[in-house]
Each structure stands twice: as C-alpha cells, then as structure tokens.
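Support reply, case 0932

Customer input (verbatim):
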Amino acid sequence: MREKFDVIHVHDWMTYPAGMLARALTGKPLVAHIHATEYDRSGENINTQVADIERAGLLAADLVVAVSRLTRQTVIERYGVRPEKVVVVYNAVARHEVERRYEIPPRIRHEKRVLFLGRVTFQKGPEYFMEAARLVLQKIPNARFFMAGSGDMLPQLIRRAGQLRIGRRFHFAGFLRGEQVDRMFALSDLYVMPSVSEPFGITPLEAMLYDVPVLLSRQSGVSEVLEHALKADFWDTRDMADKICAVLRYPCLAAELVKNCREEMKSIRWENAADQLMTVYHNVSGGN
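Our regenerated output:
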C-alpha cells in the first residue's frame, strides 16, 4: 500500500493469490502470466487445488499473457477465459556470446551424440526419447544417447534401459548446471525435446546457440517460432527415430538445419518480448 505502481504482473499459480489481493486492495490492473498450466505438468491427473488457484487467477486478471498459442488454447478451453483477454508473448534466449568452444576428444569423434536435457518427468516425455533411442541403435549401433536431468521418472528409466540392453549406449548424466550444460550442448550432434506438453521450451534455443540441430515435439510452444526445426509428435517414436537417423547419417542435412535456425534466431529476442509486454501494460492501464 506504500508503493507507487501502475500494473500488477504475476507469474504462474504460486503468485496469483498475492496478485489478486493486491488488485483488491489497490484497484490496479492485474496481468497474469502463464508459463505452464497444471494440465501441462500433470496431464489429466491434476492437482485440483493448484488448478483451482490457476483458474481463479486467470479469471480475475484484466489480461492474461500466454507463452505460446498452445498455452493460450489451454487457458481458454480448460479455464473458460475469454479469448479476447489472452495474448501471446513468446519467450526468447539471451543473446550472450558462447563463452567457450569445446573440442571433441579424438576417442569419441567417430560417434554421434544425441541429447535429452530437462526434468525427467511425465511432461518432458523422456520415455519416448528412450524408445526412439532403442530404434535408432538398431540402425546406427555407434550412436550414443545422453539423458541429462533429474526427476521422478529417473529410477524407472534406468531400469528400462537395462531391460532394453542399451545401457552401454544410453547414459544418465544427472542434473547439470552452468558450464556442464554448455559443454553437453556443445558436444552433441542433435538435441531432442520430446515433450508431451511444453508451453514453450527454451532449451532448443540454447542448443542452437552452439549450432546444434534440434528435433522438437509438435506439442511444444517453441515449435511455433522455429519453422525450420525438425518436428515429430511425441508419441510417434518411429518418426522420431527416423529423423534422428537422418540427422546423424547426413551431415549436409544437419548443416542446413543449423543454417536455417540460426537465421530464425535473429528475430527471437528478449527485446521483442519486452516491447510486447510494454504494450500490454499500456493497454491495461488505460495508456497512463
């Protein structure tokens, strides 16, 4: 009550109650940013308490900002928010220069490396990545797959790798941070994001900073802004495997994907997102 401000901007369900209270106390317009819904995180097996908070915050907001058209549709269909109240502002990636270049050790230069990096949870589709790996290894035995991250599905996937007898070619790198992440991207020949439901997904953009081609699930928001990336439905592991094989076998295809995505990256800038948010603030505050 002692602060002077024009707009209340809240991000995801954890902050919605505070935003709603601030709006009730001050009468200032409320912007609710939705980065991921409970349906993205949990499928149909949702936490109803979280979903109820999401619904209340989204309905109370003067305007809702979604990170993709996919998320916008979820907000409208699942929570009954009026379509005219939901706008899309895409995420971006920091335009920093890649700090280091990593030399591939001679002993592994003959191998092709495929990376999954993210939470090992239902939402991220790690089991589909493993099934695609199984199919690829039948055709390209010297390929090597890495699953970097932690999550509740990790123990069952470790067991599954043993059952499939692919443990020598499928490695669990654990949770990575900082330079470890940079190095993992830099040493990969392909980055795969097989998410079941991904509101946006910044990691493919981070991979592209290292000139790594990407394969995205069509159920991801970032696929809306990367026209030239390879795409597959998360559940179609055969199609996913075929596209992985194509990138690993044909260097010219990989190079073309990198060239096209590098061009697209020029317009995916945080400055653009900031300009769009300033327009949102201007509109909800009546131009003040």
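We compared this against your earlier run and they match. Two observations from our side: The first strand starts at residue 8 and ends at 11. Strands lie at 8-11, 30-34, 63-66, 86-88, 112-117, 143-148, 170-174, 190-193, 214-217, 230-232. Please reopen the case if you see a mismatch on your end.
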